[in-house]
Amino acid sequence: MLHRGDAVGRHTLRLRDLLVARGISSRVYVELIDPETSSDTELAYSYSDHCEAGDVLLYQLATASDLAPWLAARSETLVVNYHNITPPEFFAAWDNRLALHQVRARSELLMLAPRTALAVAVSSHNEAELRAAGYRATRVVPPAAMLTASTDARPHNGDSMAHPSSRSHGARWLCVGRMAPNKALQVTLMALLVTRAHHDPG
Description:
By secondary structure, the chain is of the alpha/beta class. It has six helices and six strands.
């Protein structure tokens, strides 16, 4: 499904819009239709009605899906955009069904490696996972949802995220995630304590 409110959904729609704005035809195919985004999506199994020679299939890989074996069996050029799969062990103690789902997602990540022409990661951490999974050609590209129409990325005067050297206090930390066991927010707190103790008391 394509969800309008989550990071992968926003990235997918923004990337589609960027491609179309550059004159590149782009459709969003999904395994299941979310009523909220039904006007933006089509079922993947209808792709055969629209496919053309030279097509590139771009797969947003963030969880297990029946689309993975479907993509593995097709012949079009495949690009995998990897958004990270939470390791199963972070779920196992609380939700074994979800842990098994993550095991399946990991196996699909491995399965698509030989078939993939290019794997795009949203961070260097994710790129390292891709390389460990056997992806040969990889690149780090920030999520499209982060791109703005303006090319001026400099902070405005008074911006709270200004360069550390312009502030009298230490670095500011921001941790984004649900209050859920698998998000391991305690690791961020531990990292903060270590940083304050050894590198940045402010």
